[in-house]
Specification:
- With about 300 residues, the protein is α/β, with parallel strands linked by helices.
- Helices cover about 40% and strands about 20% of the residues.
- The strands form 5 sheets. It has a 4-stranded parallel sheet with strand order 5-4-6-7. It has a 3-stranded antiparallel sheet with strand order 8-9-10, covered by helices on one side.
- The longest helix is centred in the N-terminal third of the chain and has 22 residues.
- It starts with a helix and ends with a strand.
Amino acid sequence: THQFLLGSQKWSESQLLHYQFDKLRKLIDHAFLNVPYYTKLFRSVGITPADIKSFDDISKIPILTKETARKENANLIAQIPVKGRILKGFTGGTTGPPLKLLRDSTDLSFTWAAFFRWYTWMGLEIGDPIVKIWGAPTVLTRNLRRKLADGIKNWYYNRNMVNSFNLNEQTIQDVLNRFNKFKPLLIRGYLSAFIQIAEYMKENKVRLDFKPKAISSTTETLLEPFRILIEEQFNAPMFDQYGCGECNSIAFEAGDGLGMYVASEHVYLEILDDDDKPVTGKEGRIVMTNLDNYVMPFIRYENG
């Protein structure tokens, strides 16, 4: 899938749209036939998959809100076996109470392929040294088996972990020493942790003794003053991205200052106004369709 996406990013717009709509139609057919929520929904509004003849027709399908997804959770699960491994999980809770999720192997494959394609946009390769500034209660309390599995993953991905919950005036210099020793090409983590470290570096006139290729923050909105502060202190460009647990890899920056590029092979993205009409050139509500999850489809989903 990774090699496929490295090729598909060179497609013409018409090729990409044809591929995207073909996946959308197949997903809608599957959901109508095999997912109780969508079978009932389509019948309630008097449509069938055959009525979706173009992207414009997708507006005939009512938007799925997070509240409805939580209420209808069991009815969003396909009633037929789906090929491959099924992963159980929850959303992270950044847009409200966690939501129970099921994801299949095809969805996971496209998610990670799009993520690692982004590595190439940052000038990186899989296996380049990474420091990840991470940490949440659910992570810190994992059992021994999960900790061992995480240790193997960190070794495989050449990744060094820093606990963001332990950052303070006394520990930040130790963290910077770890950066200098490991010399990662990518430093990735929570935006709040980057701000904390960057402010410490500025106040104490501390600089890294190497130059990372890229910095990437996540979880929180990267406002321009934060980007300027962090890029100046780390002496490296920042690359932002957008995703959520229901779809993950949605859009990524490529370092050209033109905003984020949508992973259109994996997600159909709509930006709508308050009347559910598409908007361009201004802010709107994000409504997404994960094109790859057949075990628990999210079609026209507004994550809030």
